[in-house]
Amino acid sequence: GAVVSQHPSWVICKSGTSVKIECRSLDFQATTMFWYRQFPKQSLMLMATSNEGSKATYEQGVEKDKFLINHASLTLSTLTVTSAHPEDSSFYICSARIEGISYEQYFGPGTRLTVT
Amino acid sequence: AQSVTQPDIHITVSEGASLELRCNYSYGATPYLFWYVQSPGQGLQLLLKYFSGDTLVQGIKGFEAEFKRSQSSFNLRKPSVHWSDAAEYFCAVAGNNNDMRFGAGTRLTVKP
């Protein structure tokens, strides 16, 4: 149980275009999901906390208008990278928390974004 | 806010040797601590976690970790390393606001 999927697993887009990444909790409901970014050979950095039915909470330094997060249902959160640039190329990982079970997150397999 | 320090960026051990990966945390209240493993290009796999109770925690793949409040540490250990254990290891701490902070990671290389 507690499986989180991400789609796509990898994507290549051209500079200036937008790309959407989906994060789904497959066998549980997640009122809270998290989005992380990981540069090569570096750690995961929390970008934002996504709450179902409300606006996401972004970490300091993360551009809200560039990284649009929508948590429209209890099993789906999306991250849209708008007007992507090569410096946005990274590994994006989402996680989800089971409602009522605090502090533990279940991680998706990640999405590799390459902007050319 | 909570934070995690993993002092060792890279560790090399011989196959069959014992392993200890260090993790120190900073948090004002009771921490919720985790160890994850990540293979290249892959997501995170939870090895073990500590919420409360017994300070020696058993995890998957033969790993264990010991929570030491006095030292603010949560070191990961394995008595005998296998070549398949080569990967990146992350220690993480979660706080009251449910967000999770990760250490910089320790890359483990296993020599045959």
Order of helices and strands of chain A: EEEEEEEEEEE
Q: Work out the radius of gyration of chain B.
A: 13 Å
Largest sheet of chain A: 7 strands, mixed
Mean pLDDT of chain B: 92
Q: How many β strands of chain B by DSSP?
A: 12
What structural category do the secondary elements of chain A indicate? mainly beta
H/E series of chain B: EEEEEEEEEEEE
Shape of chain B: globular
Class per helix and strand makeup of chain B: mainly beta
Q: Give the overall silhouette of chain A.
A: globular
Strand content of chain B: over 45%
Biggest protein-protein interface? Answer: A-B, 22 and 21 residues
Radius of gyration of chain A: 13 Å
Sheet with most strands of chain B = 6 strands, mixed
Distance between the first and last residues' Cα of chain A: 37 Å
Catalogue the unreliable spans of chain A.
none
Portion of residues in helices of chain B?
Answer: under 10%
Q: What's the tally of helices of chain B?
A: 0
Unreliable residue runs of chain B: none
Fraction of residues in β-strands of chain A: over 45%
* Tally of DSSP β-strands of chain A: 11
Question: How would you describe this protein?
Answer:
The complex is a heterodimer of chains A (116) and B (112). Chain A is 0% helix and 53% strand. Chain A has 116 residues and is mainly β. In chain A, strands 2, 4, 5, 6, 9, 10 and 11 form a seven-stranded mixed beta sheet that branches. In chain A, strands 1-3-8-7 form a four-stranded antiparallel beta sheet, with no helix packed on it. Chain A is globular, with a radius of gyration of 13 Å. Chain A starts with a strand and ends with a strand. Chain B is mainly β and 112 residues long. Chain B has no helices and twelve strands. In chain B, the strands form three sheets. In chain B, strands 2, 5, 6, 10, 11 and 12 form a six-stranded mixed beta sheet that branches. A four-stranded antiparallel beta sheet of chain B has the order 3-9-8-7, with no helix packed on it. A two-stranded antiparallel ribbon of chain B has the order 1-4. In chain B, a hairpin with a 4-residue loop joins strand 8 and strand 9. Chain B starts with a strand and ends with a strand. The A-B interface holds A 32, 34, 41-46, 49, 91, 93, 95, 97, 102-105, 107-110, 112 and B 32, 34, 36, 41-44, 46, 49, 51, 90, 94, 98-105, 107.
